[in-house]
Amino acid sequence: MRVAVVGLGGVGGYIAAKFANAGIDVVGFARGKHLEIIQSQGIKIIEDDSTWSVKIDTREEGDLDGYFEGSFDVVLFCVKSYDLVASFEQIKSHIDTNSTLISFSNGVSNGDTLRKLSNSRVLDGSIYILSHIQNAGVIRKKGKVFAAVFGGDKEGTLNLSALFEKAQLRFKTPSDIKSAIWKKYIFISAFATLSSYYVNSIGYIYEFHKDEAEELLQEIALFAKKQGVNIDSEVKKSLEVASSVPYDSLPSMALDFKNKKRVELESLSGFVKMPLMQRLYEELKKRV
Prior knowledge:
N-(1-d-carboxylethyl)-l-norvaline Dehydrogenase, domain 2, single chain, Rossmann fold, alpha/beta, globular, 46% helix
């Protein structure tokens, strides 16, 4: 299968590297110095117990001339949620009705966005991983956490499952994918918002602002219930996860605030129309 990974950040860079290492025909799309280093030196992965590198055919978005005739079998969008539409437009000339598309961007409506843009096989999905770009061409993955969750279109699910199996990456294909992506969202929405607000790690939030985190998680669960999704049990589970991840773990939005980059504030905080979340959201808007 011909595979594209659009966005080689903490998520896409790690997945693309694992795919390439497994011999999968993958092309990655990146930008700037990160793109230049990967093109010349390959992509470097630093994990807690290993460091390794692999060469990947890497291009700038839109640079598909001479790659091949036809379309990608599978496209993974691993860009920020605010870049999803623009990234699709850049690669759509190599997407057709048989292509399987999935977005691992933060949020719960990315699959709906792709379905509006295309007639392809679109999956809903989310991913659990603590990773980020440490330096240009270098991805730092922290801890043992990794799990991709996806589903929806049956054939598309089989196509993507085959890739993750070959790359020996953990994945799940739950029958109720909508609930599954909300289960990831409740954690990342709450802790990305609070870590950004307090300019500190998940471990710090759990230690010093646990009650506020629990209140925010309960708000998100109630908001999900209004959308027809029951994730009440995830409030306790999310707190347990927060207590077990490396203390200094920072969600990607908190990292982006720290590094003065564009942030996914609308999809992670603004999307949840609840009192505490909206108070935090309004304060964070002032810092953008």
